[in-house]
Every structure is written in structure tokens, then in C-alpha cells.
Design a protein that fits this description.
Layout: H1 4-7, H2 12-26, H3 31-41, H4 48-60, H5 68-92, E1 96-97, E2 100-101, H6 103-106, H7 109-128, H8 133-155, H9 164-189, H10 194-221, H11 224-227, H12 233-236, H13 242-250, H14 253-259, H15 267-277, H16 280-298, H17 306-320
Antiparallel strand pairs: 1-2
Helix pairs in contact: 2-3, 2-5, 3-7, 4-5, 4-9, 4-17, 5-7, 5-8, 5-9, 7-8, 8-9, 9-10, 10-16, 13-16, 16-17
Length: 323
């Protein structure tokens, strides 16, 4: 199976530079915050979001090198993503992320919240210094969406009447918004026509939704070791995802188990069994594939290139993570 790392071969050098620059951008003026950020930067992430920005930057500027502003956009994208992970882990009380202890469990909740705030503030400052109002608006919207997604998830815990539309909206806010808006921003910095920039946005939106749906499927089908967190942890915390919502359509008693928050002995295991015996996982795969196909169609706006091919392959890689 193709790995994300090999997919990103056209921007491998760019990603190495990005990793080096991230440490410089965070700076060492606040040692504990720097240590907290460094901890997550070292946690083995695939750098998918900045890689998409860099691939789009190269694909939209086929006859020249990408600019310093494109590179900074990729760095800002990863800083925003990292800040959101730090805060998510505090809210979710997660002990591990990517197989290593989370920032708050390695330091404290207070340090983790401050580290997340610090990264958001740093990213906002570097964003303003791009001196492009359109890009500032796009990435500022992302920070609002991340907060909105976390609020929706918190308010809808153990809500067995949650609709698929509400789930997809939350998934957009928490995952797809950053990919969609940073993809569009790359087009803006390359001076693409507005219609082309909108296609890049749609690519990021659909890819991000496919990515999140696949993650939600893997929460039921992968081992703790592969996930880097306990399997079924979303359901246990009351975060209802596509496989659960589809399973609820087939087995109404699942709603009873969810609404009493798995309070009785055997409730959680019974709920897992219901989900696995339903078509929930299969229908979720179909939903992810639908969004991945839509993402592929959006790249017709780009001329053929090595970077464009990598972006096409990425849509297929997202689905292959299931097998």
C-alpha cells in the first residue's frame, strides 16, 4: 500500500524545510510552551494538511518555484492544526495521541490550554503578515469553525437523534474547513481565477470529509496500536459518527444504550456488536468514497503535473486506509 510519505515525494524537500521552520516560528522565548509544542510536532504526524498546501502551490505554479508566502501558508496551516489537537485532547481527556502521551498528560491541562492558545495566536500573527486580506479571512474562518465544531460535538454527546447532516456539518467544521480554506488560499496566492479557487476549496472540503469519515470507520475496525488511542473511544465518549448513525436506523434499541450512556454492565460491548452486525460501516465506506470521488473531479481545473497526480492519488489513499 502506498504510504502518505511516498505520495508527498514532489514536496518532500519542502516538508523537511517546513518541519525546521515550525520550530523557529514557535520560538524558545517560553520554554514550557515550546516544549509542549515540540512534543506534538515530534509525535509522528503525516503533515497531510501542509503537504496539500505545498502540492497545490506547486501544481498552480508549474513553471516557477513556490513563493515564500505559499511556504508560510503551509506552516500556518500546520500550526492551526496542531493548536486544535492540543485543545481537543484536553476537552476529550485523551491520554495518548499518535501513540504518545498527550500534551496535557505530559505537562498539565493549564500548560496544554496555554500552548494551544499560544499556537493559535502565533498562527494569527504570521497570517496577518502575509498581507493578503482574502487569505486572512479564509484562515480566520477556520479558527472560528474549529471552535464551532468542538462546541457542536460537546453539545451533541449521546444524542441518538443526531442527523447525518449535523454529523457532516460538525465534521466539516472540525476537519474539512482547514483543508478546504487553506487549499483555496493556495490558489489565491497563485492568482488563480475565483472559479478555480472555488474548485480547490471543493477539493479540500470533499477530501476532508472523506478523511474524517474514514477516521470514524477506523475507530471501529482498527486496533488500539494502529489508532494510537483506544478503539471505540469516540462512541464511549458519546461522539456519534457515521457508522453509529447508520446502525441506529437498523436497530432502534441502540438508541437506548446510547441515551443511558452505557451505564449498565455490558451496554458498551452490546452497542459495538450492534454496529458491527449492521450495514453502518459498509454505508459509511460508501459515503467516504462518494466524497473522495467528488474531490477527484475538482482537480480538473489544474494542468497535469507530478504534484496534481499526487493530489489525485491522495484521494485514493484516503480510502485505502480502510483496507
Amino acid at each position: 500500500m502506498t504510504s502518505a510519505t511516498s505520495l508527498f515525494a514532489p514536496v518532500e524537500t519542502d516538508l523537511k524545510l517546513l518541519t525546521k521552520n515550525l520550530r523557529n516560528l514557535v520560538g524558545a522565548r517560553h520554554p514550557i510552551l515550546y516544549a509542549a509544542a515540540e512534543h506534538l510536532f515530534d509525535a509522528g504526524g503525516k503533515r497531510i494538511r501542509p503537504a496539500i498546501v505545498l502540492l497545490l502551490s506547486r501544481a498552480t505554479l508549474p513553471s516557477q518555484d513556490i513563493t515564500a508566502k505559499h511556504r508560510r501558508l503551509a506552516e500556518i496551516t500546520e500550526m492551526i492544526h496542531t493548536a486544535s489537537l492540543v485543545h481537543d485532547d484536553v476537552v476529550d481527556e485523551a491520554e495518548v495521541r499518535r501513540g504518545v502521551p498527550t500534551v496535557h498528560s505530559s505537562f498539565t491541562n493549564r500548560v496544554a490550554v496555554l500552548a494551544g492558545d499560544f499556537l493559535f495566536a502565533q498562527s494569527s500573527w504570521y497570517l496577518a503578515n502575509l498581507d493578503n486580506l482574502t487569505v486572512v479571512k479564509l484562515l480566520s474562518q477556520v479558527i472560528m469553525d474549529l471552535a464551532e465544531g468542538e462546541i457542536q460535538q460537546g453539545l451533541n454527546r449521546f444524542d441518538a437523534e443526531l442527523s447525518l447532516e449535523a454529523y457532516l456539518e460538525k465534521s466539516y467544521f472540525k476537519t474539512a474547513s482547514l483543508i478546504a480554506n487553506s487549499a483555496k488560499a493556495a490558489g489565491v496566492l497563485s492568482d488563480l481565477p475565483e472559479t478555480a479557487c472555488d474548485q480547490l476549496y471543493d477539493y479540500g472540503r470533499n477530501l476532508g470529509l472523506a478523511f474524517q469519515i474514514v477516521d470514524d470507520i477506523l475507530d471501529f475496525t482498527s486496533s488500539d496500536e494502529v489508532l494510537g488511542k483506544p478503539a471505540g473511544s469516540d462512541l464511549k465518549s458519546g461522539n456519534l459518527t457515521a457508522p453509529v448513525l447508520y446502525a441506529l436506523e437498523e436497530n432502534p434499541f441502540l438508541a437506548t444504550l446510547i441515551e443511558r450512556e452505557f451505564a449498565e454492565s455490558g451496554d458498551f460491548d452490546q452497542a459495538l456488536a450492534m454496529i458491527h452486525s449492521s450495514r453502518g460501516i459498509e454505508r459509511s465506506r460508501e459515503l467516504a468514497a462518494q466524497h473522495a470521488r467528488q474531490a477527484l473531479g475538482c482537480l480538473q481545473v489544474l494542468s497535469p503535473s507530478e504534484s496534481r497526480q499526487a493530489l489525485l492519488d491522495l484521494s485514493e489513499y484516503v480510502l485505502r486506509r480502510l483496507y
